[in-house]
Amino acid sequence: MGTLLKLSGVVDAFSGRIGNFIRWLVLASVLISAGNAIVRKIFNTSSNSLLEIQWYLFAGVFMLGAGFAFLRNAHVRIDFISSKLSRRTNAAIDAVAIVIFVFPLCWILIDLSWPLFYNAWETGEMSQNAGGLIRWPVLLLMPVGFGLLLLQACSELIKRIAFLRGAIAEPMSVESGHSDVETLAEQMAADHEHDEVERAARTPPDAASKGH
Q: Which of helix, strand or coil describes residue 50?
């Protein structure tokens, strides 16, 4: 089990790097979209290639990010049910669902999408729009994305089984609940409340009564 957990750690680290890379795709998409909008408004012109680059980047964020979302436990979950179950029960349900649903789904979609990419690459398929881009890069995102999801699913299955066997204390790398933004907002609110308490403690009672 130790070897499998080490392998799971390698996969998790790789998915984390993919997640960091995706952030740059989001930034590039925003900058290109803003630049294209400015050019269109000022010069009354646009570029199909820039529009399609936005679509490609948008597709890359979602397809390449599926495995990273699995790592962060960010996929949709029926919380009002899972929150009432024990961690062992949730881990067992996850393990069964990964084997029954995630593995076959990823394999089928990889099998279906790979010929689309290969045919587009072999024929040099281009966009039908004037000045458009070649098609195979965006089609390649499908098998690669589902491959990354399949790889992370293997890691998650290892962790769930290890948890059920008592080899690790937590079944997930990141527990579900608050996102990074929500955590930051809560931290800021807590800091603000702490500052208010300190300010009230430093204010003399007479000054507080005069304020009222």
A: helix
- Residue 161's Cα: distance from chain center in Å? 23
**Which of 119, 151, 147 is closest to 135 using CA atoms?**
119
Domain ranges of the chain: 2-177, 179-212
Q: 45 in helix, strand or coil?
A: coil
CB 143 within 8 A of CB 110: yes
Closest CA to 37 of 53, 26, 50, 24: 50
Q: 9: which strand partners? A: none
How far is 158 from 151, CA to CA, in rounded Å?
11
Amino acid at 73: N
Question: Over its length of 212 residues, how does the chain's per-residue pLDDT go in tens digits?
Answer: 888 999 999 999 999 999 999 999 999 999 998 988 888 888 887 778 888 899 899 999 999 999 999 999 887 776 777 778 888 998 999 999 999 999 999 999 999 999 999 999 999 888 888 778 899 999 999 999 999 999 999 999 999 999 998 888 887 765 444 455 555 555 666 666 766 767 777 766 565 555 55
| CA 146 to chain centroid | 13
